[in-house]
Amino acid sequence: MRIAYLITRMDNPGGAQNHVRDLCLWLKENGHDPIVVTGARGPICQTLLEAGVRVVEARALAGPVLPLKDARAVLQISRILKACAPDLLSCHSSKAGILGRIVAKAAGIPVIFTAHGWTFAQGTGLSRFAGKLLERACGPLSDHIITVSHYDRRLALSARTAPPDRITTIHSGTPLLPPVPRVAPAGRSVRLGMVARFGARKDHETLLRALARLRDKHWRLYLAGGGDFSHVASMASELGVMDRIDFMGDCTNIPALLAELDIFCLILRWEGFPRSILDAMRASLPVVASDVPGVRESVEDAVNGYLVPVGDDVLVAKSLGDLIDSPGLRVAMGNRGRARFENSFTLEHMLRPTLAIYRNAISNAANRRSMAKGRECAGDF
Question: Does residue 323 lie within any of the structural domains?
Fold first, then answer.
């Protein structure tokens, strides 16, 4: 199969970007021909290029919604798809999903949209209403919609983006790696880590307030992720914990970082289905995360981690404190997380149903073309 992946940006690591990367690498390794079309390239593309995956830029696709620029993006995407002639277009991220479905429908290319969270889930008032209308209008253009969480599927159904039989939940998966042996640290602070880009969705502030309550305990925090962290650093200084925090920027080897940690944190305001938690479970780490809908589908409270209410630094502090004080609890929760990962969230768990949807969409499109050709031939007699 020749599958074109359309994604707004591939310049920074993130859930959607890693999702596309892993799919492309597997497809290439197994004899298929994936192509990535994106508005912005970055280091994450180097892995694809080294594996022989084509990466093509449609520069007008990057950036916020702007009518004139988006019209140029439509023309660029159209030219690229005409040149590479894919069997199917797979769209990721909201803007790419809208423009890509319009282009694919006009070109007669079957198209799948994977929703990594819905923009209308965060909006309020007019923006939320407009987001629902836009997705409802684009829904009929999709041969199928994939959501990465059950929660997002329920949102899609409530917004009437497509009929139930054309919306399927497929949890994101991540490649299987060998287990990380976990033992209690001797003679050093407990290492906490959070892998998340600094921005409005993430809530580093609540994590810092929680850790300020735990000054009497021996811990060190590692924050990996791009974006502007000046506000977080300023807050850490005000709280008196700056000397116990390492800002690591975009980390190129997340598995190696996670192997050195003892506890994984993901404190959020809102999120879809975070892949970073799957990486932590794969590394046999206990997880302390905000209790937002997508997270509940990977973290089971008091089993492989703790779920805490959004913005509640008191309960974040209690959860982290319990794990810092109990090495045995950390190991037990981490092992249960690894087992849960192996049973539900490996790349293989994501690939099988995804490829089935791709093949079904391609087959249905071929049948439609055959029927249309048959009607044309019948009209000649």
Answer: yes
